[in-house]
Amino acid sequence: MPIKIQDSLPAQKILEDENIFVMTEYRAMHQDIRPLHVLILNLMPTKIETETQFLRKLSNTPLQVEVEFMQTESYQPRHVEENHLETFYTVFDEVKDRRFDGLIITGAPLEKTRFEDVVYWKELCEIMEWSKTHVHCTLHSCWGACAALYYHYGIKRVVLDEKLSGVYEHRVLKKKSPLFRGFDNLFYMPQSRSFSIRPEDIAEHPELEVMAVSDESGIAIIKRRDSSQFFVLGHPEYDSKTLLREYERDMLKGINPKIPKHYFPNDDPGAKPMVQWFSSGQLLYSNWLNYYVYQSTPYDVGAIDGHEEHVKDAETVEDE
After folding, report:
1. Adjacent-strand bridge partners of 222
2. Torsion of CA 220, 222, 228, 229, to 10 degrees
3. 3-class DSSP state for residue 102?
4. What gap in Å lies between CA 44 and CA 49, rounded to an integer?
5. Average pLDDT, stretch 117-123?
6. What is the dihedral of CA 314, 222, 119, 163, to 10 degrees?
7. What is the pLDDT of residues 289-320, one digit of tens each?
8. What pairs with residue 167 in β-bridges?
9. Cα-flanking dihedrals φ and ψ of residue 148, to 5°?
10. What's residue 119's pLDDT?
11. pTM above 0.85, yes or no
12. Are strands 22-24 and 36-41 parallel, antiparallel or unpaired?
C-alpha cells in the first residue's frame, strides 16, 4: 500500500524516483477506493490447478480484488467436471458488455498447433480485440503471450527442436520499471514451452519493449511501452511440483522427456525439487496488480475505454 506524506515534502520526488508509491495529503483526502475487477481466461486443461496458482499470486496483496473466471464457448474442456465450469465460469457473451481493470489470459498446451488451427482461435481473437477497449491492463501468460503477440503485432513464434523445461536464471533489463520493484538483478522463472520469440522481431515494433531475458531460454517478459499489455513467456505462477507433474505425465505418455533443468538437485528426479522462483513470482504479480492496474485504472470501471492513461516506465539501459 502507499505511504501518505505531507504535500510538497522534499522526499516525495526521491521516493517516486525509486518507484515507491507515495500519496500526498490532498490525494488521500480525495481518493475513492473500490475493489479491482480482474477476469482470468483460463485456457489450461488443468482448470482447478491453474485457478489456484493464479489466485495465490493475486491474493497476497493488501488490495481488494474480485476475480472471475472465463472459459471458451467454442471448445469444452474434457479434464474438468461440467458442474465446476457451470458453477464458477462465465463465457465471453456474458461479459462482453462489461469492463475490467485487469485481464489474464493463461497458457494452453497447443505449442506446436498453428494458431489458425486452434478450435477456439476465432473466439480468442475476438476476446483479445475486445480487451483493447474493455480492459485497462492485460497480462498474457506463456502460450497466451505468444498468441497475443501474433494477433496484435503479427510476430511469429519460433518452434524449438525440443521442449524448454526447467527453472532458468533471468536478467532484469528495465531496472527502473515498477514491474521489478523489489527484484534482484537476477531472478528465476519456470519455463515449459516449445517455442521462442526472436529479439529482432520485437525490435521491429517500437511500441514494445523487452523487460527481462535469459541467456539460456531467451526473451522472458515483454510489454507495451504504454503499459496496457504484458507478455510473460514463462510460468512465475507455478507451484513447487508443477514441472514434476508435467515431467511424469510426459514419461507416462512415452515421450521420454529430458529432465527439467535446474529443478532437481543433481538432476535427480527422485529428489525434492528446488524452489527458487516463489518470491520473484509473487512480486511480479503483486507489482503488476499494484502499479499497472490499481494505480492508473479509472475509479469508475465503466469509464475504461482503452484510451485512459497508463503507468509509463522510466527509460533505462541494460548496464545501469
Report:
1. 210, 231
2. -60
3. strand
4. 9
5. 96
6. -160
7. 999 999 899 888 888 998 888 887 866 544 44
8. 190
9. -70, -40
10. 95
11. yes
12. unpaired
